[in-house]
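Design a sequence for this backbone.
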């Protein structure tokens, strides 16, 4: 029905002779992109690089633990800065969650496709261009997802923490890492993060066409350097607590004043 009163009828072709895209054709194109293996790799690359940006910022923020007598104040100010605008914080949290969900879903689907493409399995696995990091991406990825869940229960919600005080991350970290097993779990997870970043950052450069597979790599050196700095930067906090270099402090002065 195209009587001018409801359904506007078929969309007239544009100047190129093709009909302009409708919401339906856009959805189809998006689905086709997601359904292709290249589309999934691009989604993994983009969401992975967003994750790298987050962990670099987070690691730098955590280094304020080493600010000496003012560390509890510095970490408190940092926690409050993150909460300057709750709508913005929730938007960032939702964006990060979407990145993790898309990244993990694409990884699992690509792994399942690879397995389905060789249902017999190899008689003998001979690693060639692969590296230790690339072969352990899936296992390391599963460890990292487990870490993120434990970490949020521990340091954000405080429900898995023995002595949690809202907005006092300095002391939350010190008391949290006085549990040697938890400190060891964090260090292990950060080693997995380093290995994951070495391969992942490099693979995403290639997927996004920033580097060709054969080229010998300044970018690879940068990926390795970033991975090592991020992993060691994160590990430094639990290690410093375990060896006694970081001790509990009085709560941030602003918190004491408001009591
Ligand atoms: C030794 C390593 C790490 C330490 C010491 C650490 C420390 C912390 C602390 C203290 C908080 C609470 C901040 C606050 O509530 O103000 C936090 C929150 C968080 N951390 Fe970490 N973190 C580490 C590694 C990581 C890694 C590797 C990731 C991600 C892959 C991560 C993801 C998060 C997330 C998503 C939050 C919640 C932020 C929010 O409230 O929305 N952390 N971390």
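Sequence:
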């Amino acid at each position: 029905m195209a009587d001018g009163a409801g359904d506007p009828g078929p969309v007239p072709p544009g100047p190129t002779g093709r009909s302009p895209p409708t919401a339906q054709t856009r959805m189809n194109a998006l689905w086709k992109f997601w359904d292709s293996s290249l589309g999934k790799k691009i989604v993994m690359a983009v969401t992975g690089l967003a994750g790298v940006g987050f962990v670099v910022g987070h690691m730098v923020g955590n280094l304020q633990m080493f600010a000496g007598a003012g560390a509890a104040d510095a970490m408190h100010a940092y926690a409050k800065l993150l909460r300057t605008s709750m709508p913005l914080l929730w938007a960032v949290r939702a964006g990060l969650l979407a990145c993790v969900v898309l990244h993990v879903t694409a990884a699992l689907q690509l792994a399942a496709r690879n397995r389905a493409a060789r249902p017999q399995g190899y008689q003998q696995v001979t690693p060639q261009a692969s590296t230790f990091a690339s072969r352990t991406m899936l296992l390391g990825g599963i460890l990292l997802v487990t870490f993120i869940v434990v970490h949020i229960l521990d340091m954000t919600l405080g429900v898995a923490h023995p002595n949690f005080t809202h907005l006092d991350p300095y002391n939350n970290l010190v008391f949290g890492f006085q549990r040697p097993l938890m400190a060891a779990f964090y260090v292990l997870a950060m080693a997995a993060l380093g290995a994951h970043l070495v391969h992942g950052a490099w693979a995403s450069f290639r997927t996004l066409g920033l580097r060709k597979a054969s080229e010998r790599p300044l970018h690879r050196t940068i990926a390795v350097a970033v991975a090592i700095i991020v992993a060691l930067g994160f590990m430094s906090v639990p290690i410093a607590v375990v060896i006694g270099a970081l001790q509990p402090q009085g709560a941030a002065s602003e918190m004491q004043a408001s009591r």
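Residues 39-111+134-249 form one domain.
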